[in-house]
Amino acid sequence: MTETVTYSVPGVSCGHCQTAITAEVTGVHGVESVDVDLEAKLVRVSGENLDDAALIAAIDEAGYDATRA
User: DSSP state, 33?
Assistant: First the structure.
């Protein structure tokens, strides 16, 4: 079953941020889609059997701090 989780990522502000986060998060097992909302500073991830710690680690690997929203 597909689920969607949302993370607050206060450091996102541009297309580079969006590209970097999308590239890292897409590589996490189970991820089907990634939506980076620059205005709201949120990252929404949809997929199956999503691992919260792995998703936060991927956002961190892209260079941004994230917390579950």
Answer: E
